[in-house]
Amino acid sequence: MRFIILSGFINLLSAASKDTCDLSAAVGQSLTLPLGYEGLVNTHVLKWTHNNTLIFYRQQGKVSVGKTEDISPSGSLLLKNLQFSSAGVYQADVLHPNGTLAKTWSGRLCVMDKAPKPQLTYVCDFKTRAVNLNCIVAKPQGLVFSWTLDEKTLTSETRQTLSISLEQLKGERSFTCSVANKVSKERSDTVRPACKSPTPSPPSPPPSLSGGVSLILLLLIIIIVLCCCHRRDKTQMRLREKGELRMLSLTKREPDSTSPVYETMHPSEDSPPPSPKHSQRACYQNVSEPEAQMVNRPLQLPTAAEEQKPSPVPKPRTKNPQTSNI
């Protein structure tokens, strides 16, 4: 049981050591793996391995694997034009002529991309009275952010965004942001935010007041429409009444157009004279209702055409023969 626990602990440490980088470099860079053995001579045996693969071997001053120019006088190894395949564990061993170990070194090399150049943008937020700056990069994972204000580093700011109040922007202030990883660091261009506050809009009325004003306007519109409709109906009624009065007037004038026909011929001598009372009663009996209405109407002056008509000739009265005999 104890052996199993100890074995698991060793495996955990080994896995942690594999994730730890003793040296880091960017793709395309050159790097020297430091052995630093000052007592190295040609009688020593020097060998370098990469992930347990022999990449350099020298014995008695003769190089059988690798290149002589890649080794420094102290035995350090120079790596050129690193690629991702160059990452891994490197180990160096120096042996005496009798085979005993004189010096050893090992370390893990990590190869990664260079940090990208960031793009600095800003947005003025007048509601919160602040300017929000953003340090934009394609892949922010594993990068460390830093900020400068007027060339002074803001040590407390290590996030990708930065917020500064508008009061701090009085005058011309310059900002930069930087991103860094284990192998490189890049800095953005300088940005000088210019936040001009917009023209303040007039305060909007409270919701209750605006609702009351809208209701009043609606009532006024309804009243105006009703008044216009009432006035139009009243005008039409007046025009209708005038038309009816005109028609009634024309109807009343039709009997007037026919004047009484008077007999202009001399009657025969044999016809008896009309009795005054009888003729008056018969006249009133033969009068139609429109003519009766015309009788009650006030007299009108005769027109010029009526004045030119001949006046009626009275019938002669016949003498009683009995009276003439007397």
From TrEMBL:
The chain crosses the membrane at residues 209-229. Residues 118-188 form the Ig-like domain. Its main location: membrane. It comes from the Eukaryota. GO terms for cellular component: cell-cell junction; membrane. Keywords: Glycoprotein, Membrane, Signal, Transmembrane, Transmembrane helix. It is found in: Membrane. The keyword Aminoacyl-tRNA synthetase does not apply. Residues 188-208, 249-326 are annotated as: Disordered. InterPro entries: CD2/SLAM_rcpt (IPR015631), Ig-like_dom (IPR007110), Ig-like_dom_sf (IPR036179), Ig-like_fold (IPR013783). Coiled coil: none annotated. Residues 199-208 have a biased composition (Pro residues). SUPFAM superfamilies: Immunoglobulin (SSF48726). Residues 1-15 form the signal peptide. The keyword Transmembrane applies. PANTHER family: HEPATIC AND GLIAL CELL ADHESION MOLECULE, SIGNALING LYMPHOCYTIC ACTIVATION MOLECULE. This is Ig-like domain-containing protein. It comes from Seriola lalandi dorsalis.
